[in-house]
């Protein structure tokens, strides 16, 4: 291991992008069962049959979005197209249809007919994250009514959301529900350890810094928060030209983030 201060052209990060909320690792520890359930619901679409719709719920930061994205990426290798919409960013029906068209490479005014024509009867998966943030659900009714060979995935932090749906939508959706349970403390530690391997070079974290990172992430019960804390602590270490992330770097990051 090289000694002395970190030089200006050096870094302790091997892949800082792996700490981004949008990064989806190939392996999602402790979510194998949930991923299998999602895959089983979509598998019939690849086989020329109808898939099952899903309602996925659980607290924030426990892997719902990443699990869905990972399965969709895997099915993309079997030529099953998918679109993923965050309804917090696109809450209105018009914006959602426009985003679907954009992801499918359709140019023109938002229209379900354009989407149907592009698909030409092919199967597709529609995934709507933060579905409870949609201002209205006309787009969902239209998709369920107009597009036959499709799977719809709704993701929410609120388990009661499905009961608030209009009966016309709920009767067409008839979703299978998948609950994402909270991570156990040892699982949180395992996930943070795995992500450090993605993001940092070896031997760049002190034991005291790791322990504090784990404690704060367990306290928040939010993996996304833990990844942000990890990234901030690493940047603090680099700012100090330190080759090791120390406990004080995690403390400084915690003070800013909390």
Explain what this protein looks like in three dimensions.
By secondary structure, the protein is an alpha/beta fold. The chain folds into 2 domains: 16-22 and 183-257, Helicase, Ruva Protein, domain 3 (Orthogonal Bundle); 32-179, Rossmann fold (3-Layer(aba) Sandwich). The protein is 47% helix and 10% strand. The protein has 10 helices and 5 strands. It has helices spanning 32-46, 64-76, 93-103, 112-119, 138-146, 167-173, 185-199, 207-220, 223-239, 247-257; strands at residues 54-57, 82-86, 124-129, 150-156, 176-179. The chain has a 5-stranded parallel β-sheet with strand order 2-3-4-1-5, with helices on both faces. Strand 3, helix 5 (138-146) and strand 4 form a beta-alpha-beta unit. The longest helix is centred in the C-terminal third of the chain and has 17 residues, at 223-239.
**Rounded to an integer, what's the Rg over CA atoms?**
21 Å
β-strand amount: 5-15%
H/E element order: HEHEHHEHEHEHHHH
Would you report the number of β strands? 5
Number of helices: 10
Overall shape: it is elongated
Q: What's the number of domains?
A: 2
Low-confidence stretches: none
């Amino acid at each position: 291991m090289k000694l002395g201060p970190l030089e200006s052209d050096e870094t302790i990060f091997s892949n800082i992008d792996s700490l981004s909320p949008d990064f989806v690792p190939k392996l999602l520890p402790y979510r194998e069962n949930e991923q299998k359930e999602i895959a089983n619901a979509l598998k019939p679409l690849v086989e020329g049959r109808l898939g099952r719709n899903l309602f996925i719920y659980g607290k924030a930061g426990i892997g719902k979005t990443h699990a869905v994205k990972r399965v969709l990426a895997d099915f993309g290798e079997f030529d099953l197209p998918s679109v993923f919409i965050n309804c917090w960013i696109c809450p209105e029906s018009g914006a959602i249809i426009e985003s679907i068209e954009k992801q499918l490479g359709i140019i023109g005014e938002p229209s379900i007919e354009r989407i149907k024509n592009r698909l030409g009867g092919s199967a597709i998966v529609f995934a709507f994250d933060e579905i409870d943030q949609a201002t209205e659900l006309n787009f969902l009714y239209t998709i369920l009514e107009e597009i036959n060979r499709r799977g719809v995935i709704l993701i929410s932090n609120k388990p009661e959301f499905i009961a608030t749906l209009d009966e016309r939508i709920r009767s067409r959706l008839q979703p299978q529900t998948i609950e994402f349970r909270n991570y156990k403390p040892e699982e949180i530690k395992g996930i943070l350890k795995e992500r450090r391997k993605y993001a940092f070079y070896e031997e760049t974290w002190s034991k005291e810094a790791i322990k504090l990172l784990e404690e704060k992430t367990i306290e928040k019960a939010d993996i996304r928060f833990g990844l942000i804390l990890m990234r901030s602590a690493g940047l603090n270490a680099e700012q100090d030209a330190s080759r090791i992330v120390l406990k004080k770097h995690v403390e400084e990051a915690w003070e800013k983030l909390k």
